[in-house]
Fold this protein.
Amino acid sequence: MSLTLKLFLATLLLGSFCYANTPSEKVEEFLSDKFDENPGLQDVSVSVDEVAQLKQLKGWSSYIVNVKASLKNKPESKIKQKMIWFSNGNVITQELVDMQSGQSFSEMVKPNFKEKYYAKENLIYGSENARHKVAIFSDPLCPFCKASVPGAIEDMKKEPEKFAIYYYHFPLERIHPASVALVKAAVAAELKGVENVVLKLYNVKVNPTEQDLSKILAAFNKAVDANVTMQDLQSEKVLKQIQFDVDVANDVMVAGTPTLYLDGKIDKTKNKYKKAI
């Protein structure tokens, strides 16, 4: 279906919700109705999490929306997804492109990094009362992460009163399957009291596509100087921490690594911290 037809249909449907009290409620009602039409879904819940006006388009706003549902043929399978929509009150769409730059508006919109995401378990260096809070999402086997993350951490850890560094494991399983075991091993090592685990993690010599857990663990223990076991990888505390990191990444819609936030705002340059040193 063409974008024009999608917008035409959306105009008719969105305009029908005249009883909504606010623009956010109007968007919620429209999307709830549309998702309810899916015969494979049940218990659909739609809520607007954040709203921001688009400076480039007068009268338009971006809506970050949480969608929850379950499958009718498999009720125990829960669906949880965060989406970006745009609306001017009459039209709603997921696709808006700047004709001058060719850039999608969805690439310009990111959720704010909320205070609740700064968990003490993720603080690897600095004081929680530091002037600046930095959040890093990274995969230790990502070549772009290896090229920038360790250096950034080394720079900031020198000034613990200026920077609180929060680190979130975000293994890219499809392209670096070995990273899944590595980040579990890293959390396990920290729980055992091993220091500087994150920085040492980038020195692990292992093929990113390796799937032999014994080889991955041996390489990790050698590089980190730890004694993490297979059993440690499946401990409740380890799995809980990894799940927390993944949940935070999903909430702020992290799509790749490395991703860096400075004081709650995404830093696409990944270098803004340097101006704060």
